[in-house]
Structure formats: C-alpha cells, structure tokens
Amino acid sequence: MAIVGGSEEATVVVRNKQVILREYVPASGFPKESDMCVTTIGTIKLMLPDQVGSDGVLVKNLYLSCDPSQRSRMTKYEPSTHFVSFQPGLVSLYVSIILPHMIRTPQQRV
C-alpha cells in the first residue's frame, strides 16, 4: 500500500482484490473456501477528499460475510425461479463486513 499526500486529497494505492464464486454450491450444502477464489486485478487509487466539511470515509473489507439471501444465490436455479443465481467467475456487487481504513482526521477515527 502506498500513501500519496496532496494538498486537496489523500490517496492510497492498493491491489484490487476480488472474491469470486468459483462454482455453484449444492442446495443441500454450505459454501466452502474451495467454492471461492481470490483474484488480484491490478491496482486502484482510493481517494479521500481533504477539504474542510468533507464527510468522506474510506473503509477496508476484512471479512467476507455471506448472509442467507446471498447463500441461496450461490446455488444454480432455473431462470423462472424466485432467486437469480450468481454466476461463477463474475464479480458480485454484494459487500461484506467493513471497518474504517482511512479517515480524514484522527478525531473522526472510530
């Protein structure tokens, strides 16, 4: 991780890690670590405005949490069913447990 300081904003350059569903989970089973894979696709710049009055908070995911609605989407279903299945190999837009990573001022740190 590299921190780049500037007069207008603080920037952190990090590796872009993604957790991908490798294969469908059987309806009668539970997700296993082997059903997922972690990929790194280049780097991204995470920016937090350094302006007075800015309410920006940058967070870092520490854990992957699968709630029951996400679990049900890890099983392959026919398109006509109530659930739309996740597709293995694609990024999901569902997020996990988060904790503050970079906050503009120490007084705002949780």
Count of all domains: 1
Strand content: 35-45%
Roughly how many Å is the radius of gyration?
18 Å
How many helix segments? 1
Report on this structure.
The protein is mainly β and 110 residues long. The chain has one domain. It is 5% helix and 37% strand. It has one helix at 68-72; strands at residues 2-4, 9-21, 36-49, 57-61, 98-103. It has a 3-stranded antiparallel β-sheet, with no helix packed on it. A two-stranded antiparallel sheet has the order 4-5. A hairpin with a 4-residue loop joins strand 1 (2-4) and strand 2 (9-21). The chain starts with a strand and ends in a 7-residue tail after the last strand. The model is unreliable at 95-99 (pLDDT under 50).
Can you give keywords for this protein?
110 residues; mainly beta; three-stranded antiparallel β-sheet; two-stranded antiparallel sheet; 1 helix; 5 strands; 5% helix; MDR_fam
In short:
Helix content is 5%, strand content 37%. It has one helix and five strands, in the order ββββαβ.
